[in-house]
Amino acid sequence: MELSSDAGKWLDAHYDPVAGLYTFSSCMDLADLNGDGENRLLVGDLGSGSLGMKLKVYRGTALSSESALLDLPTGLVSFFMDLHEPRVPAVAVASGPCVYIYKNLRPYFKFTLPGLDVNSLEQDVWQQAREGQIDPLSLKEMLESIRNKADVPLSVRSLSFLSLEPSEMDEFVQLHKQQPVKRQTVITCIQTLKKSTSDDDGVSCLVIGTESCHVYILDPEAFIILSKMVLPSAPTMMNVTGQYDVEFRVTVACRNGSIYVLRRESEKPKYCIELSSHPVGLVRVGKNLVVGGTDESLHGFTQKGKKLWKISLPAPITTMATMDLPTRGFQAVLVGLANCEVHLYHDKNLLSTIRTPDAVTSICFGRYGREDGTLIMATKGGGLLVKILKRTAAFEDKDSTPGPPLTQSVRLNTHKKTKLYVDQMMRERESGTVMHRAFQMDLSRLRLATAKAYLKALESSLTPMSSSLSEPLKMNAVVQGLGPSFKLTLNIQNTAACRPVMNLAISILYDETLYKMRTSYMRIPLLVPGLVYPIETFVECTSDRGISDIIKVFVLHEGKSSPLLTAHINMPISEGLMLG
Hints:
GO terms for molecular function: patched binding; smoothened binding. One of its GO terms (cellular component) is ciliary membrane. Keywords: Acetylation, Cell membrane, Cell projection, Cilium, Cilium biogenesis/degradation, Cytoplasm, Cytoskeleton, Membrane, Olfaction, Protein transport, Sensory transduction, Transport, Vision. The chain has a 5-stranded antiparallel beta sheet with strand order 29-30-31-35-33, with no helix packed on it. Among the domains are: 70-113 and 184-274, YVTN repeat-like/Quinoprotein amine dehydrogenase (Methylamine Dehydrogenase, Chain H, 7 Propeller), CATH 2.130.10.10; 120-177, no CATH class; 473-570, Immunoglobulin-like, CATH 2.60.40. Strand 8 and strand 9 (106-112) form a beta hairpin. 30% of the residues are buried. By secondary structure, the chain is an alpha+beta fold.
């Protein structure tokens, strides 16, 4: 395959070989800091490694501002922490055990990771040193013994003490022995997670990976820990997708050479991807993961860990980033190599090769200034390189690997109903016996439930006797007389062993065009167990059409509408009116 030339698709916007920019892809981001529609470049500069760490902001080709950092930055992200106007993002810089939040490029908040448990033996040893019971050499021997046997690691103070020369130990002990022993972890990676909406300016949570094998999700306003998850090894890279309030996935590459997938409401990994070499890059393209390894290879996986493809690279990987063009619906992977090249891949296909004057250590792609397709790279020697994708640039998805053609692996675009039919057919073929047994069982249960309901309906409508499930009551109705006046007697009995029932009432529902009653609501006295209480009333038939209807009787608690007992009484036809 003929490689696409650099000049064919990219414009050289800027190159400063002496910019003095030493950083990684995790410490670069693009954000509209002033809300004017013009994105700035945010860089967490490592400086010399021990001095000169700074937060730098570039506008165009010039450095617009910089702020000093107290420790080496391990990650930098921009995010919206509230819904206040104007919509201006905040900047979070992970450095040591803290996350420094900047708003309007001014320090706003500092979040510190919670402390870890300290080894009790280590505390006892330092307590003895504080009281002068042991000398520095004995302290060193005891700490080395604890380090070799204890499950809980030593604190930074003890590890620093063990690395000193014997002549420096006494001064170190005198300086630190009065201070309490603390064990603090550090942040290894940081990302953002949308809170409830997937909008570009939606509020986001911070997701933090720590050296103590934990992943924390922080609230964007109060900066409290919303969720805590545990990993088998320390995380080094992280990719987050979804919303915290709905569903999310946190894909983490760990130091043990494996990749783990964390889900919502799960404190431990859901899936695990074991690699043949340690990962040096992790990006997400669509629903798939692209992982770069130390063995000069690039791997494609599904989000559940199924391997899709693998390609070999001409040189070791130095950095990786996602190239996302929403206006064109195009996503690809940018891979920086140690041979001063940047390769652009879509799946396993090489689309373009960019040659650089020096090896690239960090890549950031997105909207810079007012240009959507801007590629920003920092080189190993501290240079800054900016390229802009031409609007006429087109990438051809050609397969550069030997073997069957690319079209052979493309799935046919089948109709949804056809796909559903095929899936159901395969399911019935594989588990037909189990489905038939389940169907017969459900059918038998349905028949039994229907028979019970039918029997209950017959008993409640044909005989004016009913019983309650919630209260130990039984009622029998008796109608006396030839008409047009009838005497209705309701015999109520408390069937409990020793508990009386009180505060009951009777409500009678009838057709007022056919019948008339002296009273349709009556209070029931206290019901003693075992006795039958007759409640009498009179019903007068007012119709001369020679028809009858059902009178419904409800027994319920006073002040409540839910009936405890229900009886349907078939009234006889009034013979007095028929004779008249």
